[in-house]
Amino acid sequence: MRISGIYLLVFFVVHVIHAATILDRMSWGQMLFLTYSPAGFVVLSVMIALGAFHAINGIRLMFQQGGLGIGTPTRPDYPYQIQSMGKKNRLCIYVTMGVSALALYYALDVFFEF
């Protein structure tokens, strides 16, 4: 979650700088050339996948903060078992990863036309 947040923040800052260069036609053209290159498509595809993961994981965490999927509290006896990482929560994490993988596949399909 932190890695995707940091990547999205860096992408946002670069995007704002990219948009600010519209006044200078030469640098705007160079930035568009970088954006439409295969490396630029890969960066955009990864951004789409991380954005989807970040958003869906944030929704999952909001539900978890509300008490959904955590389970009932139990007495902490040795050996300790993590209650917050039960089957429901792990399933939600796997679904989140799957949806972000589908978003990555769709972005790659759009950019590279498989």
From TrEMBL:
Keywords: Heme, Iron, Membrane, Metal-binding, Transmembrane, Transmembrane helix. It comes from the Archaea. Signal peptide: none annotated. GO terms for cellular component: membrane. The chain crosses the membrane at residues 35-56, 91-108. GO terms for molecular function: metal ion binding. It holds the Pfam family Sdh_cyt. It is found in: Membrane. InterPro entries: SQR/QFR_C/D, SuccDH_FuR_B_TM-su. Its main location: membrane. This is Succinate dehydrogenase/Fumarate reductase transmembrane subunit. It comes from Candidatus Nitrosomarinus catalinensis.
